Amino acid sequence: MILIILSELGRLSLIAATSLLLSHGVSRQRIPSRAIMNGIAMGTYKHASSLCFTALSILTLGFLLNDYGLRTVWLNSHTELPMMFKMTNVLGSPQGSWLLWTTLTTSAAYHAMRQAKKDDINLDGTILTATLAIFCLYGLFLANPFTRLIPIAPDNGVDLNPLLQDPAFLIHPPCLYLGTSALLIPYTLVMSLRMNHASKHETIVLRIKQWSLWSWGWLTLGITLGSWWAYRELGWGGWWFWDPVENAALMPWLAVTALIHACMHRSVNIYWLSITASLTYITNLLGILITRSGILVSVHSFAIDTHKGFLLLLLIIGMTGYSMWHQRHIWTTNTTKGHTNQGLVRQHHILLAMTIVIAVGTMYPLIAQSLTQSKMVVGSGYYEQALMPFNLLLIWSLHRQHRQIIYSQSFAIATGLITTFCIHTIAAASWQVSQIPHLAVLTLLLGSFYMQIISYIVTRKQKTMHIAHGLLLLLGIAISCNMHYEKIGINDVTKDQEIKMGPLGVSLGSTSVQQGPNYVAEVIPVVIRSKEHTIATQPEIRYYANRAMIKSVTAIKSLWIGDVYTSIMKNKDTSITARIYFKPLQWLFWILGCALGIVGLSNALRINTRHDQRIDTT
After folding, report:
1. Under DSSP, is residue 618 helix (H, G, I), strand (E, B) or coil?
2. How confident is the model at residue 332 (pLDDT cuts 50, 70, 90)?
3. CA angle 215, 218, 222 (to 5 degrees)
4. How far apart are CA 615 and CA 510, in angstroms?
5. To which H or E segment does residue 527 belong?
6. Helix orientation angle between 306-327 and 125-141, rounded to the nearest 10 degrees
7. Counting Cβ atoms within 10 Å, is residue 13 exposed (0-12), middle (13-18) or buried (19+)?
8. How many other C-beta atoms lie within 10 A of the C-beta of residue 388?
9. What is the pLDDT of residue 73?
10. Which residues have CB under 8 Å from 309's CB, separation 6+?
11. Residues 236, 583: Cα–Cα separation, whole Å
12. Residue 310: enclosing H or E segment and its boundaries?
């Protein structure tokens, strides 16, 4: 009975938050004073976020107390599920994750409105309130986490998907939700430009940059941790598969990167700023559509429900229409005097073009299926070939951005060429004509990286920008080396047999069985021998009886030069298929990605602190 009362309290909290936003949206036009209206809006968002947080806490409590009368808990939990996954299990269900995302979005709206009041700027509360109300209505009617199983609650749950029972699951989704939920604020701020005097535009652009950096930092962390999860869990030896849901996170990341560059111009073009902010939020909604509706095949998709997809598509169409209407009232103008940095303009346009290329590749299968009634998949080849020219242009733009430093470009390219020669001599067994494109790209990456170091030392200006560009180029160098110098071996191995995979000898150790909290693991050691070294790894095959699923758990041995990655699969006979990879500099991916995210977040917080101090002194 107590559990039923708690769940109904959660439902009532969600209803109250929705009603509060709807009533505020209806009554906005009747309030004569804009100052009073903004104050009421700030209170509305504050109480709505508190009510959503109350509902989220009650749902979490339902998971902890094993309330299997709640359909969401029943589908995603079990009595044997480890406590750390029960505490964060709201992330594993489409209903719970939507409630978390709505809570974060309403909280971001409250903080943005509070900043607007402090900055004495008018915020477009109509679009903000309408969007939040739609999110709450969606959660109340189409993704309600408090739907109960009637008449009798089951004794136990179905269990959480084994692929989600991983430490990365605890931190990867919250980072993405923190990033995507904050993207509503830059979009709202851009829509508010026409409501404010030109003297306030500089402050609004600064706030757009701050919120964009905040979102960019969390998205960077989320994408990095998501690729770490895929690398460890899926057992394919890769970390990025151009999956539709991966693209759903990458598109807003590229768009918000372009938005940050648009805000950094000495002479801000309001027209392009508006287009970029609109594209950023529309791609964000497009990612939600892909993830929530399951209209495209993906290992990440939460559900397959065409009705939910149709409603989300209507929301995207509505946002697109509102943005186009808003463009009619925006003209090309500058917020400050000065010359535009052409390097930033080029980078902005290149990033927008890359976003559109990925959007076309992601949505093309859906469009083709609706026209031809035949299913198709856009593979990695399209993305790699279509994006390569833009990648090269972006790297060259970063290299040319500091051409005012005399002789530095030639020195950086020469140093990059020498470094490339050394890396290839150590990593590759031979020199071939087919390797020339890779070596040219690696030289350009290294040259641009050295150029960032030189510019940082010489100019001592825009240090954060140089650090971010340097980390991104270093990440590109690690990716290039990883792709072209990795070694792969796949073969069948039986017990008491050693097979050859190139220069390596591979054999199996003695199998052991271990009992986990909600699974049984069969540990099959794989011993890899070379002339100088012996590496023992312990991949597992886990059997989840509650879900009736089998999961292969990879074994990763991290060395300073890269990872030795082992994955196994049992065949119908007694043999084991062993997949062994050597992944150069793989560990560097996660370090650089997290460092980039931290740089973005720290810069956003620094902008907020400096601006608040300036307001306090005036």
Report:
1. coil
2. very low
3. 130
4. 69
5. strand 526-529
6. 180
7. buried
8. 12
9. 94
10. 289, 292, 293, 294, 295
11. 12
12. helix 306-327
Q: For residue 151, say if its preceding peptide bond is cis, omega within 30 degrees of 0.
A: yes
Indicate whether 74 pLDDT > 90: yes
Q: 326 by DSSP, 3-state: which?
A: helix
Q: How far apart are CA 429 and CA 421, in angstroms?
A: 13
Query: Looking up tokens 């002194």, which residue turns up?
Result: 617
Q: Which residue has the tokens 């100019």?
A: 459
Q: Which of 137-141, 350-354, 363-367 has the lowest mean pLDDT?
A: 363-367
Rounded average pLDDT over 532-550: 89
CA angle 281, 312, 243 (to 5 degrees): 70
Concatenate the DSSP letters of all residues of 417-480 into one string. Answer: HHHHHHHHHHH-SS--GGGHHHHHHHHHHHHHHHHHHHHHHHH---HHHHHHHHHHHHHHHHHH
Distance CA 165, CA 78 (A): 12
Residue 376 tokens read as 């198709």
Res 123 pLDDT > 80: yes
CB 348 within 8 A of CB 370: no
- Asked if 293 and 306 touch (Cβ cutoff 8 Å), the reply is yes
Q: What pLDDT digit, counting tens, does each position of 212-265 carry?
A: 999 999 999 999 999 999 898 887 778 888 888 899 999 999 999 999 999 886
Joined tokens for residue 354: 């890359």
Reference 269, options 351, 344, 184, 355; nearest CA is 344
- Indicate whether 601 pLDDT > 80: yes
- β-sheet with 487-493: strand ranges across: 487-493, 576-584, 562-570, 555-559
Q: Judge contact between 438 and 548, C-beta under 8 A.
A: no
The Cα 98–Cα 12 span in angstroms is 17
- DSSP-assigned letters across all residues of 546-597: TTTEEEEEPEEEEETTEEEEEEEEE-SSS-EEEEEEEEETHHHHHHHHHHHH
pTM: 0.93
Strand partners of residue 570? 576
- Residue 196: band (very low, low, confident or very high) from pLDDT cuts 50, 70, 90: confident
